Amino acid sequence: MTRSRRPGDHRPGHKRSHKRSHAPERGTHTPPSASNPSEMNVNTVKPIARSRQVRRLLEGIGTPLPAPFAPDQFQLEALARVEQEDVLVTAPTGSGKTWIAREEIRRLLAAGRRAWYTSPL
């Protein structure tokens, strides 16, 4: 079994880097970079989330007005095709795959048929 190396580990036969560490000076706080999520954790996010600027920004967001749901074209195409053949829908999380399944199940039940739905947890 090999051990994974961490940045800064010295490998025999390789020169050590004399570059200075990117760690902040003791007693200073550098906010984590949004472009580097590995820097973000509970201890770094809490102070940022409590900041006056963040609270002011969030207060202005509000709640969207209710609007009727309008399916995307890929959802309508999947529903039309599933009546003729097996369909596999792959799309990002939150894009509406479950809506397609629900609508097809609704159609099958209305026609007196049965449906079986499974999903990874």
* CA(first)-CA(last) distance: 32 Å
Number of helices: 4
**Content of β-strand:** under 5%
Structural class assignment: mainly alpha
Tell me about the biggest sheet?
Answer: none
N to C succession of SSEs:
HHHH
Q: Indicate the radius of gyration in whole angstroms.
A: 26 Å
Number of strands: 0
Mean pLDDT, all residues: 77
Helix percent reads 25-40%
**Tell me, what's the shape?**
elongated
Poorly predicted residue ranges: none
Entry keywords:
121 residues; mainly alpha
Word description of this protein:
33% of the residues lie in helices and 0% in strands. Helix 3 (73-82) packs parallel to helix 4. The model has no long low-confidence stretch (mean pLDDT 77). With 121 residues, it is an all-alpha fold.
Itemize the secondary structure elements and their pairings.
Layout: H1 42-49, H2 52-59, H3 73-82, H4 97-110
In short:
The chain is built from 4 helices and no strands.
